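Session log. Operator J.P. requested a structure for one protein chain; no other inputs attached. Running the standard single-chain path with token output.
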Amino acid sequence: MIKYINETTEYLQNRGFEKPEIGIILGTGLGKLLDDVTIIHEVSYNQIPYFPTATVEFHKGKLIYGELEGKKVIIMQGRFHLYEGYTLKDITYPVRIMNQLGIHTLLVSNASGAVNLEYDKGDLMLIDDHINLLGGSPLAFKGVSKLGERFADMSAPYDKDINTKFKAIAKAHDITLREGVYASMLGPQLETRAEYRMLKILGADAVGMSTVPEIIVANHLKLKAAAVSVITDKGDPDNLHPVDIKEIIEVAENAEPKMITLFKELIKTL
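Structure written below.
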């Protein structure tokens, strides 16, 4: 993997991806952040050596280098999921590349379903901790210790200083920002009534199909990391209705301005 990482990094450096400070994974609810980015270079995933290719129709597939709020950023427009058939190493490969290019902070967004029924559709949730229910680890491979400490500490996977800043920004801009535990499940099927009950017992506030692998690898690489979910549906096991993916996307788009405000104001401070 070290050989692959070096080749990919060299490819991007030769195309002008120079010393980014912050990596951003644009999940559902943050797509229009690019409208505020001064784009310097961009390259499609399928042109980057050893990079996976996004297959979900509403996820794009470009790596973008530019400037946002005075900071050099590298942005993944489109992310990867286990349910697409990738491995956990594939999914987290871009985080390793962003680290090699020089980032010190990784910021992530996603869409999730509420397990905590006090949450409403369109709310934002700052992730304080997570539960990995994906059935594997992105660190479980031979030679991982050459890339970082094998037994990565996960006592505080989401940077407390960044989370404190997020909460202050939300308060200043009158944005409701929940704080809770995110559970990541394989998917792509959505949860059953029994699974929602299980997640509540486990202590989850929201559930999705992403983010946790990237955060684990960010901690493995000693990067600061933070993530925000947009709540797009509610998993009430006693009153569970079929989920409309179009509605989920619409809810996420409506919440987008709040998410963008949080991220832009935070980046100013990093």
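Operator note: The CA atoms of residues 8 and 194 lie 43 Å apart.
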